[in-house]
Every structure is written in C-alpha cells, then in structure tokens.
Amino acid sequence: MTSARRHIALVLVALVALLACPVTALAEATVSVPVSQHFTSDVSGVADSFDYVLTASDANAPMPDGSTGRTYAFSLTGDGSTTIDIDCASAAPGKYTYRLADASDHVDGYTYETRVYVMTLYVSTGCDPVVTVERESDGVKVAKIELDPSYAEPAPATTTSATTSSSSSAGPLARTGDMTDMTIPVAFAALAFVALAGALALGRRRCD
Questions:
Q1: Cys bridge to 22: 17, 26, 77, 168, which one at CB 3.0-4.6 A?
Q2: d(Cα 74, Cα 62) in Å, to the nearest integer?
C-alpha cells in the first residue's frame, strides 16, 4: 500500500511541474501585440488609410502570417485596430527584435506617425514565449502600439499681383500729366516773342 501511495505522489508532482512550465508541444506558442490607430482631421471625407511595416532584425525570426522575408506590412483605416500575431512553435530558442514604423506615401496636409516601436520576443524551451514593446525614442515600455496620424487643410498659397510686381521691379513711373516744369520756359518765350514783335512795329513807323 505504501508503494502505491508513493507512485501516486510522484504522478501528482509530475503533473504539477508540467502545468507550471509546459513542454514546447503544450506551450502557448503564439504571441499577440495589440495595435490601434487614432485618426484626426479638420476636414471630412479625406483619405484615412495608412501603411505600416514591421521589420525583423534577424532573418530567422518568426514572423506573422502574410510576411515577406523579414518584413510584415499592414494598413489601418480611421480609428482602426488589429493585432500582430507571431507563431513561435517552430522558432529556435533566443531573443528576436522587431521595429514597427510608418510606411505611408506622404501627402501635403497629413501628419504621419513618427514614433518607432521596438518589439522584443523571447523564446525559450518548455515555456511560453514572452514579448515586450517599447518606444524607440525614449525606451518606455508600453502595453500596446498606438498610432496617431492626422490631417489639416493646407493654407492657400499667397500670390502677388503681376501689375504690382512689375511696377515694383521697374521703379516709380514717370508723371505724364505734370507740366509744371515747362511753364517758366514757355512764359519767357512768349514774352520774348511779344517784345520782338513790338520792336519791329516801332521800327516800321519810324521809317515811314
């Protein structure tokens, strides 16, 4: 009876150890990182879809479904959200690093997400994989990836009148209607003409 009890006790201990840190086959092999986008705009009806790329630093890093090589591209629209799911079942034990950044084509009026997020994945034999996320700029760890693009109507470009521009470049225009400077010479010429005519008339009278 004592031997049977020992056997039962050993089985219970083994079960407890198995549940505490399951073997690879029974471990939770997938990690998920939540991603949310909050889009703001002062104009309705504008495009609100943005592109993002997750890039692994290691060519052997486990990647989400739909990846191409070391990159995983996805899009979010408006106030959309998604999760980045990575299956680690066949990954070799180790540390894997990923960077997530905006990959949208930039258009005037839009402000794009400038923050870069760093994901670090730890894979070990016999235990669940663990992933951490932090902002690359300050190293602060976060529970999820938050993206905040926005749009603001560009201010209209200011244009200068062609007439004003040409006038400014050519300098001040001549005053075509101002005859003040000609008044004095004309007056002297008129007086000289009258004096000459008077002298001629006087000379003729004397001759008579």
A1: 26
A2: 17
First and final C-alpha spacing in the chain:
182
Which pair of structure tokens corresponds to residue 66? 């739909």
Question: What's the token pair of residue 156?
Answer: 């209209």
Query: Mind listing the domains of the chain with CATH numbers?
Result: 22-151 (2.60.40.3050)
Q: Give the residue from 33, 131, 134, 146 showing the smallest Cα distance to 83.
A: 33
Per residue in 155-171, pLDDT (tens digit) is 887 766 555 555 555 55
Cross-strand pairs, 100: 54, 117
Q: Nearest 5 degrees, angle CA 120-CA 122-CA 124?
A: 170
Rounded Cα distance between 104 and 47, Å, is: 12
Residue pLDDT, tens place only, 24-54 = 333 478 999 999 999 999 999 999 999 999 9
Specify the pLDDT at position 156.
85
Q: How many CB atoms lie within 10 A of CB 98?
A: 26
